[in-house]
Amino acid sequence: MPDTTPPPLDSAQVAHLASLARIALTADEIEKLTGELGVIIESIAKVSEVATPDVPATSHPIPLSNVFRPDVPGATLTVEQALSGAPERDGDRFKVSAILGEEQ
Amino acid sequence: MSGDSLISLSASVLAERLHSGELSSVEVTQAHLDRIAEVDGDIHAFLHVSADALKTAAEVDGARRLGAKLSPLAGVPVAIKDVLCTQDMPSTAGSRILEGWIPPYDATVVAKLRKARLIPLGKTNMDEFAMGSSTEHSAFGPTHNPWDLERIPGGSGGGSAAAVAAFEAPLALGSDTGGSIRQPAAVTGTVGMKPTYGGVSRYGAIALASSLDQVGPVTRTVLDAALLHDVIGGHDEHDSTSLTDAWPSFADAARAGAASGSLTGVRVGVVKELGGEGFQAGVSARFAEALDLMASAGAEIVEVSAPSFRYAIAAYYLILPAEASSNLAKFDSVRFGLRVNPPGGGTVEDVMAATREVGFGPEVKRRIILGTYALSAGYYDAYYGSAQKVRTLIQRDFDSAFSRADVLVSPAAPTTAFKLGEKLEDPLAMYLNDVTTIPANLAGVPGMGLPMGLAPEDGLPTGIQIMAPAHEDARIYTVGATLEALLEQSWGRTLISQAPGHPSMPLPDERAARLEGGTR
Amino acid sequence: MTSTADLMDFDKALELFEPVLGFEVHVELNTKTKMFSPAPNPAAPGADASEPNTMVTPVCLGLPGSLPVVNEQAIRFSISLGLALGCEIAPTSRFARKNYFYPDLAKNYQISQYDEPIAHDGLVEVELANGKTFRIEIERAHMEEDAGKLTHVGGATGRIQGADYSLVDYNRAGVPLVEIVTKMITGAEHDAPELAKAYVSAIRDIVVALGISEARMERGNLRCDANISLSPRGSGELGTRTETKNVNSLRSVERAIRYEIQRQAAILAAGGAIIQETRHWHEDSGTTSAGRPKSDADDYRYFPEPDLLPVEPSRALIEELRSALPEPPAVRRRRLKESWGFTDLEFQDVLNSGLLVEVESTVAAGASPAQARKWWTGEIARLANVAAVDPSSLVSPADVAALVALVESGELTDRLARQVLEGVIAGEGSPSEVVEKRGLKVVSDDGALIAAIDEALASQPDVLEKIRDGKVQAAGAVIGAVMKAMHGQADAARVRELVLERATTP
């Protein structure tokens, strides 16, 4: 099995991960996390020692398949229930700040 | 009966006295509310106490007076871990990001509690999003261990365990992703059961790691756990991973175990890898005594080896953060929860990032970043993919061990309760608390934490873990109830009766009543 | 803004470059409920999703603690679609989470399928107007959920840029989708734009025949993302591709491909480079504009959805669904041509206009094939062209059939029927309602006609003589005068009859 151990984590990578995860980390937090995660990753990277190609992956602890629901409408939330937790609303819709995206 | 002695009764005894009319639910509920008012300032087991408890209790009393057919635990109060959605109480999962959020729906287990007419007392404290082993990661301050207020009550379900240990509630619900029911039970001298994955619905349980999470009972006796499990268990069409098994009565299983007093013919497997180095001396000593006791009651003790268990923590700390990083993405300030607008406004992207920076605590951020890393392109195979393979190996180890033993045992936690703050700055040391409990979550098998005595060196509770093959939860209740009875006979009292601040429980009565119940 | 981009002449572009195409078509299934929640499905027939956030459950809103459960009917529809696309149905397929933050995505991950789709390796045959047939290879068809709907408020255009804030409605969140992904298509050459339209039209015909989607492009039931790149002729190298989104009519598919070829060719010929990005099609201007650049930052962190279990359809289920498939499009086309009695030219006319389904539905609703064809490929297509929309978005087959019936019963003339059609399109109601409201009925009261004829004859006294002398065509002048007097609301044939009658009776 080829060595697939990724290179050690650096702070630029942590900053990138934080942006993927939408967390506005401060520079101090990034620095601290880089150290902490480095230690943790070093410790957990040993999973690859025994994860040989002949071993299948298990994603569910109890194997089941074909769990379906009949196509029958059920109870819905009222509009008020749906919006009850909204930090901000406009009429019956959720309100968010301007979106940076698609058509720039 | 005075409130003090009332709160020391087990749920099964309370249930009987409610049933016979000797006690009213209002009395019982009031006694527990009084107890909460008296001690929760010190313990901080509750994040919210229900304003409707007495009203609900009065309704149950009324129904009983009218001769309604009520379920066995009707009228008995229950505390609910704050990870569970309740449409009449805030549900925060211990996080600032959900502070004050009242869901528009009940978790299935909560709906089942209501249907069985238990009395929801309030919501219990927990590590934020159940990430932790000490309840110190709650955004609303830690819970204190009733045995020693300077010490942790375990986690993440420290609130539920402490509430039960401090007699603030006879019953509580917990959730267990890597030991959050069993480890707190061990360090607070209580009983906690993690059912087979899928045995209890996860619908309405705020997800940490979907493939590991399981809701279960937190109580002071094995029978109480079984009674509560009977209420919350069973298939739920809202949870695809919910099992369709026809479950036996766990209460019957527990009563049978308590009554038999014998373990003849039971093969008890001791997992070599879940003991020895890193385990506190007093924990190991009590564990050895418990094994002797089981042997003397007829059990066949066999040593089993599970070599892959040494990779369990590593696999767990990849799978959990990976799933959690995705499950926690929904906390984005759009539909519910906190919103933090960065200075000068900003785009929705900036608002989300600012909200998550302020709303999540350090441990949550740590695990989200770790999980994001583990799933990133290029790293998936080495980390998440490998961890899922380790999971297969651990399942194989369980299969092999269960071919030689009916139940597996280990200490439920490597140490007794440690001091608040002791491991807060060392995440890796904190993660090692779950070494004994994690394998059961990875494999989906049921496990129970049960008191096995006080450690001689610090006088604090220790717990034993009993595990059975998937779907065989009843076996744990039978063996657990037998062991509990044997231990209590050997001590001449219950473990919890030795807790400081214990409201002078009249032990003989209660024990007798419980055993009586078992022979019926 | 790139809408003012230089464009190279299409033929010139094709001289220099070879177009390489690829399509991702999203089909909204018309199940009663959503993909993972028992909320009513806004893409179901007759559903009304106009009130925001009225068709939601905790699952659609991604509320903490909520969990998805798969809709069995969506699985059956997806398998049927896979089979109709000639795909293999996977013995085991799996849902995966595609993680990215966007406010219309309630959980900030989309439940989709990744490395284990339900159907893969299919083939769709597409016929062009010139009789050429293309075999388009399908890479995969996978199930996923739709996102909610964003409305951008403020700014000049209602578009995302310059908006002050946005509003989110989650009614559409969780609508079941099947995404059909083609393999790379080469060799289309000059036919590329037409091929694109024909391909999407073929997919539409398939899902309509299966009855699994309402397939209204203008409503987003069927959405096409078109990938296109240009390879310098003879270079053998693949060019950088763009992905054009928001193409919501058959007509636009064709235009968008043509536009992108011309735009990319101009850039490449000038020594520029194509940026790998999504581009947004603008129906009004017929142009595309740059969207989000595709980059390494797009890391969706796919992993198997832990809240859902593998889908393992039995052989028996697959065979049951296979045996229930409608006939393949080519067979169907042959059958329809024969049963309608159309000439090659007439049938090709229907195919090329992409109106096979409409004509078929109109015939099914009672119209004669000839009339159905005449209306769809004639007046309706003309009006659609004027309005720059697909004909099917203007009027329903049932209304067209009703219109034809009114003509055939003599209640409307062709001319009046065209006015009625305009009323129907304007939303004034069904054809009979429009007839009523606009008072367009043919005057069939002979008394009124005779009075008008008499008046006309009185002003042209020589006409009767001419008719009696056998010069029947002289009647034309009177008929014209009568039709004018009746404001066109008379049956000219009847007027002629009455005029001749009048001439022959003393």
Automatic annotation (TrEMBL), chain A:
Protein name per the record: Aspartyl/glutamyl-tRNA(Asn/Gln) amidotransferase subunit C
Catalytically driven reaction(s): L-aspartyl-tRNA(Asn) + L-glutamine + ATP + H2O = L-asparaginyl-tRNA(Asn) + L-glutamate + ADP + phosphate + 2 H(+); L-glutamyl-tRNA(Gln) + L-glutamine + ATP + H2O = L-glutaminyl-tRNA(Gln) + L-glutamate + ADP + phosphate + H(+)
Keywords, alphabetical: ATP-binding, Ligase, Nucleotide-binding, Protein biosynthesis, Transferase
Subunit-level organization: Heterotrimer of A, B and C subunits.
Gene of this entry: gatC
Entry similarity comment: Belongs to the GatC family.
InterPro entries xref list: Asp/Glu-ADT_sf_sub_c, GatC
One Gene Ontology molecular-function label: transferase activity
NCBIfam families named in the record: gatC
Biological process annotations from GO: glutaminyl-tRNAGln biosynthesis via transamidation; regulation of translational fidelity; translation
Residue ranges that the Swiss-Prot or TrEMBL entry lists as coiled coil: none
UniProtKB/TrEMBL annotation, chain B:
InterPro entries associated with the record: Amidase, Amidase_CS, Amidase_dom, AS_sf, GatA
Stored PROSITE patterns: AMIDASES
Catalytic residues (positions): K81, S156, S180
Keywords: ATP-binding, Ligase, Nucleotide-binding, Protein biosynthesis, Transferase
EC number: 6.3.5.7
Tree of life domain: Bacteria
A Pfam family this chain is assigned to: Amidase
GO MF annotations, alphabetized: ATP binding; glutaminyl-tRNA synthase (glutamine-hydrolyzing) activity; transferase activity
GO BP annotation list: translation
Catalytic activity: L-glutamyl-tRNA(Gln) + L-glutamine + ATP + H2O = L-glutaminyl-tRNA(Gln) + L-glutamate + ADP + phosphate + H(+)
Ranges where the record places region Disordered: 497-520
Residues spanning the signal sequence: none
GO cellular component, one term: glutamyl-tRNA(Gln) amidotransferase complex
ATP-binding as UniProt keyword: yes
Coiled coil: none
Basic and acidic residues bias (residue ranges): 508-520
Enzyme class: ligase
Residue ranges of every copy of the Amidase domain listed in the record: 27-476
Family named by the database record: Belongs to the amidase family. GatA subfamily.
Function: Allows the formation of correctly charged Gln-tRNA(Gln) through the transamidation of misacylated Glu-tRNA(Gln) in organisms which lack glutaminyl-tRNA synthetase. The reaction takes place in the presence of glutamine and ATP through an activated gamma-phospho-Glu-tRNA(Gln).
PANTHER family in alphabetical order: GLUTAMYL-TRNA(GLN) AMIDOTRANSFERASE SUBUNIT A (PTHR11895:SF151), TRANSAMIDASE (PTHR11895)
Known partners and oligomeric status: Heterotrimer of A, B and C subunits.
Official protein name in the record: Glutamyl-tRNA(Gln) amidotransferase subunit A
The organism of origin for this protein: Terrimesophilobacter mesophilus
TrEMBL record, chain C:
Gene Ontology MF term list: asparaginyl-tRNA synthase (glutamine-hydrolyzing) activity; ATP binding; glutaminyl-tRNA synthase (glutamine-hydrolyzing) activity; transferase activity
Oligomeric form and interacting partners: Heterotrimer of A, B and C subunits.
Gene Ontology annotations of biological process type: glutaminyl-tRNAGln biosynthesis via transamidation; translation
Protein name: Aspartyl/glutamyl-tRNA(Asn/Gln) amidotransferase subunit B
Source organism, top-level taxon: Bacteria
EC number: 6.3.5.-
SMART domains named in the record: GatB_Yqey
Function field: Allows the formation of correctly charged Asn-tRNA(Asn) or Gln-tRNA(Gln) through the transamidation of misacylated Asp-tRNA(Asn) or Glu-tRNA(Gln) in organisms which lack either or both of asparaginyl-tRNA or glutaminyl-tRNA synthetases. The reaction takes place in the presence of glutamine and ATP through an activated phospho-Asp-tRNA(Asn) or phospho-Glu-tRNA(Gln).
